[in-house]
Amino acid sequence: MKRKLTRIIGIVLILTMLASCSSVGIGGKQISVGGKNFTEQYLLSEMTAFLLKEEGFNVKQMNNLGSTVVRKALENSQVDMMWEYTGTALITYMGEEPIADPVEAFEKVKKLDAKNNDIHWMNMSNVNNTYALAMREEQANELGIESISDLAAYVNENPGELTMASDAEFANRPDGLPGVEETYGFEFDSSQIKLMDLGLTQRSLDNEQVDVSVAFETDATIVEYDLVTLKDDKTFFPPYRAAVSINEDVYEKYPEVEEITARLGEKLNSDIMRELNYKVDIEGNSVSVVAHDWLVENGLLEE
């Protein structure tokens, strides 16, 4: 009887220990971070996860998702937070007209998402993943072209000389090339526009097959090919600033997330993001290593 009682007590102690270990494993501050399916988003998600873990959060990353998929997941509370772009939210998700001023665009998105979707926006960064027009740095300097206004003046004075690489979407959408031409008062003849996949446009520029290319501000190929993006001096392209969007209930539960992610939002900009993308896409480094090293180098994470 004594042996049986001892065995029962032993089993109870083991189960108690397992339950205790289990509660440690699943307890504490839990949060999930979503991300889209391209390098910049992987990096933003990874850096955010590192910082949250440093502050005691158990972090679940949900990356490699399409834009509308991760957005729906955020709306349905399947994802707690993510870095999203103001222009994507305003134009694509909310169906609103583009707003040129980045702060105004952010405030509009913040107001609409709080009202309609219980999503809180915070910590807008200077990472602006918007459209841009790019040229080879050497040629741009030679022709004295620094801005889209300079490009417009050159095209008007030298019709038929320059050619441009574009994908079909940018070449035809109102907030793409047609809108740029109308705003800046110039026009490429149809024979001057070379249509191709978006991934080939900068390569064709580097190979001197064209003189101008559509690009995104944070493209790694801008660094790889020594390109320059022309200043959008009439602010035609709407801002696509990266900012944190978080489920309102999660934000209320963990308000400290705002201060934690502010460390990223305050330091990141398009130039830094472009360099980080370059380290992954061109140099072949892992997202985790690039994210960790940058955080350490900038004093945001202990080595």
TrEMBL record:
Residues 29-295 form the ABC-type glycine betaine transport system substrate-binding domain. Pfam families: OpuAC. Transmembrane segments: none annotated. GO terms for cellular component: ATP-binding cassette (ABC) transporter complex. It comes from the Bacteria. Signal peptide: none annotated. InterPro entries: ABC_Gly_betaine_transp_sub-bd (IPR007210). GO terms for molecular function: transmembrane transporter activity. PROSITE patterns: PROKAR_LIPOPROTEIN. It comes from Guptibacillus hwajinpoensis. This is Glycine/betaine ABC transporter substrate-binding protein.
